[in-house]
């Protein structure tokens, strides 16, 4: 039904599902490594499996074949390549970035049809990326948040489609497993299918992937996620898309990592492509705290890792990919910035944002300062969440001056935003630079569907932006999309 792989320089991890249960477990043959891997079950019914191979050769293309225990082929063989070793010096690396591809099309809120999402993603794949980053909001099924749940998981239509979760019960082996598959499965399985079987994917979770929106009222504060939210987020990741593989420069003991010398991670990942490029991915929801001036979005140990990598000199380009975007605000509670929508429909900091934590902004400034201090790199952040496509240069954050090495920040583009999901519709204001920043917008955020292609070359990064206007362009134009904007970031020196 679907197949999503990820790789590092020496390992691969594949998540796969089948239309019917398999017993005994299926096997994956890896050639020429002469490996036969026995599938590990990811559900209780034998439909979801994973395969992991370690000790592979860097920069090597492998032939993979899935077979049933009887020896019957379950699909045609396909190829998948490992990344170059950390010491290799490749000439180029191409990555596709996008956000917000989830949404059950049978809910009344009206997400983009799956067939249209398929075409957008296939258009991106047609450019031959060597990696794909799906940044957050793979599942929209909010359960408790007052605004989100009233349109998504708590609606009569949602309960008719999937049933109702029992928050006091386990996910696997209980009725919750059935509800989860009916709720999340149609938002992921048919969207990706097997199109990405030869392209490593990196899925980063955001608020909706925890089955709630980031909202804070006197009745309910949705984050940090509750135990049940975490169970659903972890269960959906376990079944549908791969965790992040280990990286030698990422500590094994970061939160939500397996631990040990072979540690993978659920929330903090690395894409390392030789000495050419490194992309650090981090979830800002899982470890968020509500501690006022000392609050953080990412755990302090994660922050230390990010600072250490920014200070490193072993890779030409280093990119941050957080699940929450630096650079813009839509007045939401769970943002880096204190801006809130005023009576004049403009963002302001003169009105306190309820439950917002000043420590989040302090951590933002520490991270931005470490990026701007990379004198031999062009600082770059690529994020999603705000349902838009845009690019800006961060010249100042509070009292910090970045003009000597401005930070480029990018909104990668959404794949499946519903009409009411554009910030300007749902919140009354589009993505806007917050008061705290001096942001020079090269492309003001555009509320249309699209994606971003980044080419990493030894002396520069080339960013190509793609958009499709659901209101004005026919669907078949997706197959011919060309960049509407291109920018180059020269590596200093």
Description:
With 493 residues, this protein is an alpha+beta fold. The chain has 2 domains: 1-82, Immunoglobulin-like, CATH 2.60.40.10; 86-490, 4-Layer Sandwich (Purple Acid Phosphatase, chain A, domain 2). Helices cover 17% and strands 27% of the residues. It is built from 8 helices and 24 strands. Strands 12, 13, 14, 17, 18, 19, 20 and 21 form an 8-stranded mixed beta sheet that branches. A 6-stranded mixed beta sheet has the order 11-10-9-22-23-24, with helices on one face. A 4-stranded antiparallel beta sheet has the order 1-2-6-5. A hairpin with a 6-residue loop joins strand 5 (40-41) and strand 6. The protein is globular, with a radius of gyration of 21 Å.
Summary, kept brief:
This protein is an alpha+beta fold. The chain has helices at 114-125, 146-149, 156-162, 175-192, 227-240, 300-311, 358-372, 423-426, and strands at 2-7, 12-17, 27-31, 35-38, 40-41, 48-53, 61-67, 78-81, 92-99, 131-135, 201-204, 268-273, 277-282, 317-322, 340-341, 347-348, 380-383, 389-397, 400-401, 407-412, 437-446, 449-457, 460-468, 485-490.
The percentage helix is 10-25%
CATH homolog superfamily of the largest domain: Metallo-dependent phosphatases
Number of strands: 24
Give the DSSP E fraction (strand runs of 2 or more residues): 25-35%
Q: From the coordinates shown, what is the CATH architecture of the largest domain?
A: 4-Layer Sandwich
N- and C-termini, Cα separation: 48 Å
In terms of per-residue confidence, which ranges show pLDDT below 50 for 5 or more consecutive residues?
Answer: none
Classification by helices and strands: alpha+beta
What coarse outline follows from CA principal-axis ratios? globular
Count of alpha/pi helices: 8
Number of domains: 2
CATH topology of the largest domain: Purple Acid Phosphatase, chain A, domain 2
- Rg result: 21 Å
Describe the main β-sheet briefly.
8 strands, mixed
Mean pLDDT reading: 96
What oligomerization state is this entry in? single chain
CATH class identity of the largest domain:
Alpha Beta
């Amino acid at each position: 039904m679907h197949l999503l792989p990820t790789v590092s320089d020496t390992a691969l991890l594949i998540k796969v599902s089948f239309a019917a249960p398999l017993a005994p477990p299926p096997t994956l043959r890896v050639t020429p490594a002469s490996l036969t891997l026995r599938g590990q079950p990811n559900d209780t019914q034998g439909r979801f499996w994973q395969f992991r191979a370690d000790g592979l050769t860097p920069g090597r293309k492998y032939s993979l074949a899935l077979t049933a225990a009887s020896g019957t082929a379950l699909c045609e063989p396909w190829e998948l390549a490992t990344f170059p070793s950390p010491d290799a010096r490749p000439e180029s690396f191409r990555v596709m970035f996008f956000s917000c591809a989830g949404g059950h099309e049978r809910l009344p809120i009206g997400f983009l049809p799956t067939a249209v999402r398929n075409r957008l993603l296939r258009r991106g794949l047609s450019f031959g990326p060597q990696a794909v980053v799906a940044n957050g909001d793979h599942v929209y099924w909010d359960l408790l948040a007052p605004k989100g749940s009233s349109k998504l998981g708590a609606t009569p239509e949602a309960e008719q489609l999937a049933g109702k979760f029992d928050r006091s019960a386990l996910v696997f082996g209980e009725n919750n497993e059935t509800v989860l598959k009916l709720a999340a499965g149609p938002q992921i399985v048919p969207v990706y299918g097997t199109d990405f079987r030869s392209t490593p994917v990196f899925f980063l979770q955001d608020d909706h992937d925890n089955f709630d929106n980031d909202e804070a009222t006197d009745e309910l504060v949705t984050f940090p996620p509750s135990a049940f939210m975490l169970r659903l987020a972890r269960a959906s990741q376990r079944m549908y898309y791969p965790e992040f593989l280990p990286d030698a420069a990422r500590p094994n003991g970061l939160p939500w990592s397996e631990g040990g010398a072979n540690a993978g991670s659920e929330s903090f990942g690395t894409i390392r492509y030789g000495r050419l490029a490194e992309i650090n991915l981090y979830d800002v929801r899982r470890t968020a705290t509500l501690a006022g001036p000392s609050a953080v979005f990412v755990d302090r140990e994660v922050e230390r890792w990010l600072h250490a990598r920014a200070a490193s000199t072993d890779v030409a380009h280093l990119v941050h990919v957080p699940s929450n975007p630096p650079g813009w605000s839509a007045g939401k509670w769970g943002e880096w910035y204190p801006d809130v929508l005023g009576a004049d429909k403009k963002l302001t900091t003169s009105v306190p944002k309820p439950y917002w934590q000043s420590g989040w902004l302090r951590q933002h400034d520490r991270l931005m300062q470490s990026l701007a201090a990379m004198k031999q790199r062009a600082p770059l952040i690529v994020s999603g969440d705000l349902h838009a496509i845009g690019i800006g240069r961060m010249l100042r954050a509070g009292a910090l001056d970045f003009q000597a090495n401005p930070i480029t920040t990018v909104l990668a583009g959404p794949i499946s935003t519903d009409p009411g999901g554009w910030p300007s519709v749902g919140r009354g204001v589009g993505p806007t630079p917050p008061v705290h920043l001096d942001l020079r917008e090269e492309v003001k955020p555009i509320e249309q569907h699209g994606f971003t292609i980044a080419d990493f070359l030894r002396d520069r990064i080339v960013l190509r932006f793609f958009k499709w206007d659901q209101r004005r362009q026919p669907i078949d134009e997706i197959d011919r999309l060309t960049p509407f904007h291109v920018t180059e970031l020269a590596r200093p020196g």
